[in-house]
Every structure is written in C-alpha cells, then in structure tokens.
Amino acid sequence: MRSTATEGRRINRRALLRGAAAIAFGAVLGPRASGAATRLLVSTARLPDGRFGLVAVEPDGAVRFATPLPGRGHEPVVAAGRGEVVVMARRPGRFLAVVALADGNLRRTLSAPAGRHFYGHAVFGPDHRLLYTTENDYDGGRGVIGVWDAAAGYARVGELDAHGIGPHDLALGADGRTLAIANGGLLTHPDFGRAKLNLASMQPCLSVIDRRTGALLRRLVLPQELHQLGIRHLCIARDGSVGFGMQYEGPQSDTVPLAGTWAVDGTVVLLPLPDATPAETRNYVGDVAVDATGRYLAASFPRGGKVGVWDLPAGRCLGLVPAFDACGLAAESGTSRLWISDGAGEIGPIDPGRSLARSVVTPIAGLAFDNHFARI
Amino acid sequence: MRVLPTVLALALLAAPFSATPAAADPARDAAIVARAVTDYIRPATERFARDTHGLDDAVEGFCAAPGGDTRAALDAAFRGAVEGWSGIQFLRFGPLVEEHRLERIAFWPDPKGIGLRQLRRALADRDATVTDPGQLAGKSVALQGLTALEYLLYGDGGDQLDAFRCAFATAAAGSLAAVADAIAGEWAAPDGFAQRLIRPGSDDPVYRTPAESLAELHRALTTGLQVTRDQKLKPVLGDTPDTAKPFLAPFRRAGLSVAVLAADLSALGAFTAAAGFARDLPDEYRWLDNSLAFEFGNAVRAVGSVELPIDEAVYDQTARGRLEYLFVVLGNLQTMTRQDLATALDLKGGFNALDGD
C-alpha cells in the first residue's frame, strides 16, 4: 500500500482524469495512520470532476482518499475489523465495490447475480463476515436479501426473502441475530429504470427476519390510508427499537407523518411534525439516525433543505435544522451528536442535547456528498 | 503538507460545476408560470377532456352500429385521446396525481403484464361489475382508462366487440371522460390549483414563492423528457436490434407507439415555448431559447420521418437510425434543461434533493 500513498502525493489532474485508481492523500504514512479505522467519515460522493466515487474524510476535514467507482454508489458499509468498506451501487445498479479503509484502494468489484439488481443498502453481521444486501428479483417481482461471505472473497452464499416489495435500507438488530428491513413497497423493473410501477397499489412494510433462517419474526404494516408512505430508511436505537423514515408518493400538499419508531414490544409511534409544512419536508425523508444515547432521532428532508430532530422519550419535535440539500446522517459513538452531510460538500454535527446549530467543514471544493455516509 | 497538494489538484477540477447561477427574478418566474398555465396547461387539459368525450361517443357509436365507418371513427377517436394524453401526461403534479388519476388514465409501464392478466380475467369471467362506470371507478386502476380500452379495442377479439366487451368499453370510456373532466375542471377553476401555482404565498403548503412554482413546472419538463427517453424509447430500442424490445412500447397493440413519441415531443416542445422558460434570460444564457426550439424541432422531425410501426422500425436500418438519433437529441434536451436552464433560472435544485433514493 506504500506505493499508492507515494503516488497519492504526486496526484495531478491528468492522473485523476485517467485512472480508476484511488487518490490517496498520503495519510498512510503519518502518525494518524496507525488509527486508520477510527474517527473517519466515509461517504459516497460526486467528485469534483463529475465522476461518482467514495471519499473518506477525517472529522477536521482532512481527506484520506477519494476513489472513483464504476458508477453512482449509494450506501458505504464499513467493516472496520476487515479494514475495508463495501459500497453498494445505487438502484438499479449492479456493482458491489470493496475499498480498503487505509488508502482507498479498490480491492475488488463484484456484480449482482443474474436476475437481481441492488437497491443500494447493505449491512454486515456482527463479526463482519456475512454481508446482507437488499436486492430486486425483478422478474419475480419480489424483494430479496443477498448473503455474501466476505471471508471467502465475497462469495454469494445465500438468499433470504425480504417479506416485502422494494427492500431498501436494512439494519442489524441489537441482538445481532435479526435483520430489520424497510420494504418501500415500490415495484420497479430495470427495463424501465427507476419508474415506479405500482403507485396506486403499493404496500410498504417493515419486516424483521432471522438472519440465519430467513424466518419472518415481526412485520409492521401501517394503516391502509397511509399505504402510499414508502418506508425507505431505518436505524436501530440502543434499546433495539427501529427508527424509520418515509417518502410519500401521494399528493404533495397532503400532511403526513414522515418518521416513526417501532419498539421491541410492538409499540409504534409516528413522530409529530407540528410546525413543518409540506414545503419544508417535501414529504420525503432521505435518511434517519438515532444518536448513541438513544434519545434523539434525526430525519433528513433533502428536498426541503431541513433536518428534523426529535426527543424520543418526550415524543416531541425539537425543530428543523436548516441544511440545504442535506441527506446523509450518522451518529457519533459515545455522544449525543448527530452528523449531517450535504450536496454542497459540507459535513458536520449537531448536538441536540445542547443546540440544533450545525458546525461544518468543507473538505474539497466541488465535492458533493451523496445520500449516505458512515462514521467510524 | 499531507493534504494541500492534492486538494489543490482537485480544486482545479471544480470548474464544470461552478458556473455562476443567474440572479433570482421573481417577476420573471411568475410570468413563466402564468403563461404555462394559461397558454398551455389549461388548453391541453381541455383538449384531453374533449378527446375523451369523443372517444366515449365513438365507442357508443360503434357498439350501436358496428361497421367500417363507425370503426374508422373509433380508431380516429382512440388515436386522438392517446395523443391528447401525451399533451398532459408529463404534468405529474396537482390535479393529475390526485385520486390516482395518472394510473387510472394509463396503467403503464406494466412490464409484468399485471393489467393484461386482470383484463383477461375480467373478460373470461364476464365480470359484470366492470360494465358499470360507478363500480369500475373503484376497481383496479389497470381495468380503467386508455390502457384497458386499448386491449378491449385492439387486443384479441378487439376487432369485433361482443356485447360484454362493448359494455366494458363503454364503462371505461365514460369513466375516463369523467377523470379527464375533473382534471380540466380543477385546472380551470379560478380559485383552484392553478391559482395556488400562479399566486404562491407563504401560507401555501407547497408553493411559497414564484421560484417554487417555477421549479414544479421545470421538474415537469425534465421528468417528461426522461419518461419519453428512458421509458418509452430506450428499452424499446435496446442497444442493438438484438436487444430491442418493441413489445414494451406504449400503445403498441393500437399501432400508436411511434405516434406517442411524436405527440410527447410536440407537447413538451409546445409547453416549453408557451411557458417561455428561456425567453427572458440574462445575456449569457440567451442562446438557450433558440437551442431548445432547435432541438425540439430536430426531435419532432426525426420521429415524424419514421413511417413504420414500432415492431418493424426497431429492426429497419433507416427507421432505427432515426430513432437512435432521436435518443441522442433527447439526451441533449435533458442536459440543456436539467443543467443549463436550471442554472439560468437560478433553480437551486441540489444534488441530493433532485435525485434522491
């Protein structure tokens, strides 16, 4: 990896335009290299030259690497124990890229199996060995979870039923045994790109399955009058409850709930948005996160340029953080801070326990953070 | 030391995305919105309502007196309604998306043939509820509207409508005309949706400023171009004749797939011209007005010169070449509207906001 780091210091415009190679930023040789897997923000992005890639940024804005990808990525999933990050293609893409955390080298690129495309999200099992990916069995018109063995070169080792149409985001349950899956409910087919084929009859749900047997353990379907609220993103709080964010496919002047929680005992809370208008949310949540204490939930509204923050025990919306084109959210471990990334290339935290003011850094001019990032 | 050299290298690459946006101009934005509604959307929704009533009459005329003349009138009326639909199908906001109207008018695309299965079952079962307009409106969207009528009139058994098919088609045509009336009525109402768009205000749930109303219309234009290019043309054409899938084309049974492409492009071009999106731009963007008109002209001419039905056109060297050219022109139009026009109009659509997931 040393040679790449050396190359990285000599990177120039031609090299960036030419190569698919990672652009290392020389971090590997410095003293911080020993802590390669700590305090790093890893995000899909549009690079300043217009290509899509993966960037790794330290919290002070120092860029560790920017690696071009075969296409537009969606969620980066970190396996710190393996020293790598898996990047899923954005739907209806078919690539799965494995990138080294230390220097951004592209370790391998895989493809979705025949008859499947990725939806853009994935999660590792507790030991970072098995990787679970949301996928579309498009001729069967059903959602599936692909299972890959990272220890065996990411061999495809199985497939589970998602128990819903259009599985998008998924997360590992607090017990390490279950997977929570946000089934957005939208039927799509690669022949027609991203076109939504069943808006009138869509039926989103959350499903919880046993990740070893695929057995359906729990399922949440919202009341029929909310059937056009696609449940697209989720996160797991410390107490095991599922926080979720939704996207409304009905008329845009309707006021609908956009985020909620689903406790282990089955209690469902649809979070109130008393002072927000549809113009501020555009009825569209791009990402959700619960802070490490489990008290605060954030949902981003990239189309409205806001991030909503709730105090969960109080069941109260704390307010909307103005954040133009912000989508990605991630919790900082050990604190109540929640990090926000945006399309203007800014990234930084709020601390809901103190104030909703957001501090940001801008790592590289012309960079646009894409929908999701991971914080380690 | 660690970061600086590479950051500088990357900064050089920022140029393509750093074009200075034009200044905000609420008066110009409001004028575009008013022209779009008055000079395009209202007349187009009224035309579609008239077309669907014409189709309703033609179905009844043919069913009352089947014959060559009444069938020719029915074919012409169906084509008129399909072309009229092209005139408004890209306006996917407000009245068109209330009560699932978009899907009730045309259940397309349907790559898994869900609609076809439902239609065949209703015909095989002689399901009487589909012959009653009131009950039909509450049934699956796939059994209503133009896509259902297309199968009834041009699918197996569509040349000679039996009594059940006639009753089904009459109910579908009547229900379609009612939906078209509702859309035209809501756009025409002096205190309705159009007024919210034309006179945005801070108390409106969606349109607070002229720029937000304009963004809605701009999005309709770019989405419309995308639907025509990426849904109606790209999968049909395939990368090569070997991968062409003409059976995916809209209204193929009625032989109207090429006519749909032509009508879509005429409509998008007419909408752009009537609204005058690029009419009052700062000097550095003034080229857009002519360039948009020029490319829409190229697109309409290209598709107008395709004389074969889509099933043959994708395999015919000349016709395929014209459709491939059309695909390129549509790509240019997408770039021009999504990037140049958006920048010129100071529409601050963000990277995540515009195209999220």
Offer a few descriptive terms:
heterodimer, A: 376 residues, mainly beta, 5-stranded antiparallel β-sheet, B: 357 residues, mainly alpha, A middle domain of Talin 1, disordered N terminus, Peptidase M75 (chain B), signal (chain B), Imelysin-like_IPPA (chain B), Imelysin_sf (chain B), Imelysin-like (chain B)
Residue-averaged pLDDT of chain A: 90
Number of strands of chain B: 0
| Regions with little confidence, pLDDT below 50 for 5+ residues of chain A | 1-21, 24-37
Q: Based on the coordinates given, report the CATH architecture of the largest domain in chain B.
A: Up-down Bundle
Protein name (chain A): DUF1513 domain-containing protein
Pfam families (chain A): DUF1513
Pfam family, one (chain B): Peptidase_M75
Keywords (chain B): Signal
Structural features, described:
The complex is a heterodimer of chains A (376) and B (357). Chain A has 376 residues and is mainly beta. Helices cover 5% and strands 45% of the residues of chain A. Chain B is an all-alpha fold and 357 residues long. Chain B contains 15 helices and no strands. Chain B has helices at 4-12, 26-64, 68-86, 101-105, 114-125, 133-136, 145-154, 163-188, 193-198, 210-237, 257-275, 287-304, 310-313, 317-344, 351-354. In chain B, helix 10 runs antiparallel to helix 11 (257-275). The model of chain B is unreliable at 1-18 (pLDDT under 50). Chains A and B meet through helix 2 and strand 28 of A and helix 1, helix 4, helix 10 and helix 15 of B.
Layout of strands and helices, then pairs:
The complex is a heterodimer of chains A (376) and B (357).
Chain A: H1 2-9, H2 13-18, E1 23-24, E2 41-46, E3 52-57, E4 63-68, E5 73-79, E6 84-89, E7 95-100, E8 106-111, E9 116-124, E10 130-137, E11 142-149, E12 155-161, E13 167-172, E14 178-183, E15 205-210, E16 216-220, E17 229-236, E18 242-248, E19 259-262, E20 268-270, H3 278-281, E21 287-290, E22 296-301, E23 306-311, E24 316-322, E25 326-331, E26 338-342, E27 347-350, E28 368-375
Antiparallel strand pairs in A: 1-4, 2-3, 2-28, 3-4, 5-6, 6-7, 7-8, 9-10, 10-11, 11-12, 13-14, 14-15, 15-16, 17-18, 18-19, 19-20, 21-22, 22-23, 23-24, 25-26, 26-27
Chain B: H1 4-12, H2 26-64, H3 68-86, H4 101-105, H5 114-125, H6 133-136, H7 145-154, H8 163-188, H9 193-198, H10 210-237, H11 257-275, H12 287-304, H13 310-313, H14 317-344, H15 351-354
InterPro entries (chain B): Imelysin-like, Imelysin-like_IPPA, Imelysin_sf
Subcellular location (chain B): Cell envelope
Main location (chain B): other
